[in-house]
TrEMBL record, chain A:
InterPro entries: DUF1501, TAT_signal. PANTHER family: BLL7424 PROTEIN, DUF1501 DOMAIN-CONTAINING PROTEIN. It comes from Paenirhodobacter ferrireducens. This is DUF1501 domain-containing protein.
TrEMBL record, chain B:
Pfam families: DUF1800. This is DUF1800 domain-containing protein. It comes from the Bacteria.
Length: 422, 455
């Protein structure tokens, strides 16, 4: 894998959401007092919790999903006699056995019924309740946390020169690398650019940061793409699609996608070993409307690679770390007519880290019978996913419950502590 | 502000030394009412041609797999032809944008292409993505119901949002082949209401999504004739969408056309479209008086779009407010190429490497892969989404390389600054340009200036 360079966007809290950006490979990093580390991975596209953490002990699951491989007989790994882990994540089983991996099931944000990815993701990043119009939801729960913590600082690291979240999208290919980050300006040109951008803060700040990073720069990655290659656009399109809607039999994501996911986690780990205490980034590709058996393998493998990399690269700090993998909503309990699943409600959350009391699937299981499903189609959410994030912030950073319910996750009823921290 | 200062920035692709900017909204409206001269001059890929290219690709891939002599070479050539058609689609779009005297038709074309985002997930579909945009074109100055039909029933949309794999669970076909377990896929039905018509705040429910998905079953994409309707694949019986019953037995394409028209003319759609247009053209928080007037014009004209554009061009709330937006990368490159003094003919004469180096690849580096929006909601509007440090670095580098790479014949830097920015030339830029240590850097300062990027 090519080494990727990241650079930091200012110490100020950016105007846009501090949570991971949908179009960029970016990592939001925050320094807060204390030694505990929190890593939030936003799983974009709606991860099918019923496929990643399969309640195979309920015979209804196989009936609802006759064409999906379900349970240990079809390759999943048994967790506790009722739930089983998707085969693409088997590499995480050692962590399960040592109590460093766990899940919460039947969770969701308070977002209901419209099942729009875009609004659902806003909710997750914003962490607000439905008491404010979605169009007004802009800042993120992380921003609000930082405002509550004296001495906290946030910064956003971008991968240099690659704009879309290709490295995480499953369509990554060596050809997609576009690290055109060198600035070929003379020093006088730089001075003059500084001057002409003076009155426009957006351009002034972006240019000054671009110059800062390219000054330090090894530009070894330049020239990895040949703009005249006829396959420039063809190759990435032949790989698994970015949003995971792969046709049956589509090729598995390239090794590069897994490697890139790992390298993003590696970068986050390098910062978490330093002053950073909270890191947030995204993983795309979970929108498996068609041919889910093939389509979910890519993002699942990439998620496992991220967790494995964090485990390896955090070293002793892993013991103080909690990783949360959160998605905007779950998917339909039944398979649809194209061997995929459509947008649903309740889903699953991944938890990992030495700070976790793992080896457990947390949450109240609602059942899969028709009457138990939400609107007769989706897994019924029995807990607010934000309550888990809230209890994590309470336990790790001592954030008071009333601040969590009023300021950080407005409208949240945090409920009883699920006691998932070690 | 003079309309001739406002219009090229808000409704066009900036200034060209070869053209006089429109002096009044009437000039723009007259151009929109008239024939689509630029599509006549540089026609894009037709759906028929795109289907043939896809078919040929699939045929040759099969032949190659069967080791037919010569098939490997033919297959490679077909792959290259598809790649060229993709880059060629960009070249045509750029030529039209650079040539269009008012710019508004091309800006609208880009807007609607994005509103109805499609993306080829597989190589053989790439020509269809180009053709989908071309199929929208005749309707963007007509009515929204017709535009919605052109988009929804196009093979690329049916492929992109999985409609081709959706079957009525009780259709004849599903019953005949129970082993295939054919059934519904909600993807197109949901995005039709959420993104294309009512908007996510619109008055639809999950049941409406489901019912619409059932109503849409039967749509197929055939190798030769493109979109067709197969009653055997359709869910039997009527479906109720937003309280109205559609269809019945036998299922027909006309039922689908009927529901599309109803969705198009729904008041929620008028508000969604009005707001989206205003946010795109005017600014992030458009005056409710403007969007209200646009929405009224839309409903009053039964979805005819010219009356809506007329409000957008003439309403007082669309005249001021400052230039808070940032040109999206395609818009930015077209504006720059236009400012350099090229016309459409010159753009069509750029060779392959020029288009790839100075348009196709820079678009990607600036964050807007050509016809490659990552999700069906298309590209973002907010200025901050487009000016990250590395995106701005890509714009600055383009400004440095493109004039030489495209062999632009630029005037003296100070003159270039005046011609490119007109009345918007700021003192800061005017002072910086003569202090540059080289002509290329002086030109780059003009092209990279905030005034050139903002709109």
């Amino acid at each position: 894998m090519l080494s990727r360079r990241f650079f930091l966007q200012g110490a100020a809290i950016a105007g846009c959401s501090a949570a991971a950006h949908p179009f960029m490979s970016s990592v939001t990093l925050a320094a807060v007092p204390g030694e505990q580390r929190l890593v939030v991975i936003i799983l974009r596209g709606a991860m099918d919790g019923l496929d990643i953490v399969q309640p195979y002990g309920d015979p209804l699951l196989a009936q609802l999903r006759p064409d999906f491989p379900v349970g240990p007989d079809k390759g999943a790994t048994d967790l506790d006699g009722f739930f089983a882990l998707h085969p693409a994540m088997a590499e995480l089983m050692p962590l399960w056995k040592t109590g460093e991996l766990g899940f919460a099931h039947a969770v969701s944000t308070p977002y209901r019924d419209k099942r729009s990815h875009f609004d659902g993701q806003d909710m997750l990043e914003a962490g607000t309740g439905m008491d404010v119009p979605l169009s007004m939801v802009r800042d993120g729960w992380l921003n609000r946390l930082l405002q509550q913590m004296p001495g906290a600082r946030a910064e956003t690291a971008y991968s240099v020169g690659d704009d879309e979240l290709k490295i995480l999208s499953g369509s990554a290919a060596a050809l997609s690398w576009a690290p055109d980050a060198s600035l070929i300006l003379s020093s006088q040109g730089r001075t003059l650019l500084d001057m002409i951008y003076h009155d426009d803060p957006l351009f002034r700040q972006a240019a000054s940061e671009a110059m800062q990073i390219t000054d330090g720069g090894d530009n070894a990655e330049d020239g990895t793409t040949d703009p005249d290659s006829p396959d420039l656009m063809a190759e990435p399109m032949m790989a698994a699609p970015a949003d995971g809607m792969a046709a049956p039999g589509a090729p598995a994501p390239l090794k590069g996608a897994v490697g890139a996911a790992a390298s993003l986690a590696d970068f986050a780990a390098s910062r978490l070993r330093g002053e950073t205490r909270i890191a947030a980034f995204s993983l795309n590709g979970w929108d498996t409307h068609r041919g889910q058996e093939a389509a979910i393998r890519g993002p699942a493998t990439q998620l496992a690679a991220m967790v494995t990399t964090l485990r390896q690269q955090l070293g002793p700090v892993w013991d103080k770390t909690l990783v949360l993998g959160m998605t905007e909503f779950g998917r339909t309990a039944r398979q649809n007519g194209t061997r995929g699943t459509d947008h649903g409600t309740g889903g699953a959350m991944l938890m990992a880290g030495g700070a976790l009391k793992g080896r457990k699937v947390y949450g109240k299981w609602p059942g899969l019978a028709d009457a138990d499903l939400y609107a007769g189609r989706d897994l019924m959410p029995t807990a607010d996913i934000r309550a888990y994030a809230g209890w994590a912030l309470r336990g790790m950073y001592g954030v008071p419950v009333d601040v969590l319910e009023k300021s950080i996750f407005p409208g949240l009823d945090i409920g009883a502590d699920p006691r998932f921290l070690a | 502000m003079e309309f001739s200062t406002l219009a090229p920035v808000r409704f066009g692709f900036g200034l060209s030394p070869r053209q006089t900017p429109p002096a009044s909204p009437d000039e723009i409206l007259a151009a929109l009412r008239g024939p689509d001269l630029l599509a006549q001059r540089w026609p894009g890929l037709t759906t028929q041609e795109a289907l043939q290219m896809r078919d040929e690709f699939l045929r040759l891939r099969k032949a190659e797999a069967q080791n037919v002599p010569g098939a490997t070479e033919d297959f490679k050539r077909q792959r290259q032809a598809i790649d060229r058609s993709n880059v060629g689609g960009l070249q045509i779009a750029l030529a039209r944008a650079v040539e269009d005297p008012t710019g508004m038709r091309e800006r609208l074309h880009a807007f609607w292409r994005n509103h109805f985002t499609v993306r080829a997930k597989r190589t053989p579909e790439a020509p269809l993505a180009t053709a989908h945009g071309e199929a929208l074109r005749p309707e963007i100055t007509g009515s929204f119901p017709a535009l919605l039909r052109a988009s929804t029933l196009h093979p690329m949309m049916l492929i992109y949002l999985d409609q081709i794999a959706s079957f009525g669970p009780d259709s004849k076909r599903a019953k005949k082949r129970p082993d295939l377990k054919l059934g519904l896929n909600e993807n197109l039905a949901r995005e039709l209401m959420e993104l294309h018509t009512l908007g996510v705040g619109g008055s639809y429910t999950q049941d409406d999504v489901r019912q619409l998905a059932e109503l849409l079953t039967g749509l197929r994409v055939m190798a030769e004739e493109g979109t067709t309707f197969a009653p055997d694949f359709a869910e039997p019986g009527a479906e109720t969408v937003l309280g109205h019953a559609y269809g019945g037995d036998p299922a027909k394409m006309a039922d689908i056309v009927q529901v599309l028209t109803a969705l198009a003319l729904h008041p929620d759609t008028s508000r969604h479209i009005a707001t989206k247009l205003a946010v795109h053209f005017v600014g992030p928080e458009p005056d409710p008086a403007l969007t209200g007037a646009m929405s009224e014009a839309y409903l009053g004209a039964k979805g005819q779009l010219l009356p809506v554009y007329e409000v957008l061009l003439t309403h007082p709330a669309a005249q001021g407010g400052g230039f808070l937006k940032v040109r999206q990368p395609f818009d930015y490159i077209a504006t720059g190429v236009r400012a350099m003094g090229f016309d459409g003919k010159a753009v069509m004469a750029f060779n392959g490497p020029q288009i790839r180096r100075h348009a196709f690849k820079p678009l990607r580096d600036m964050g807007q892969r050509w016809l490659g929006a990552p999700a069906p909601n298309g590209w973002p509007e907010a200025a901050e989404e487009w000016i990250s440090p590395q995106q701005l670095a890509a714009r600055i580098n383009w400004a440095l390389k493109a004039p030489a790479g495209l062999q632009a014949k630029l005037p003296e830097p100070a003159d270039f600054a005046r011609a490119a920015l007109g009345p918007r030339l700021s003192d800061l830029v005017a002072q910086a340009v003569p202090r540059s240590e080289s002509r290329p850097e002086a030109a780059a300062l003009v092209l990279a200036s905030a005034e050139m990027n903002r709109r």
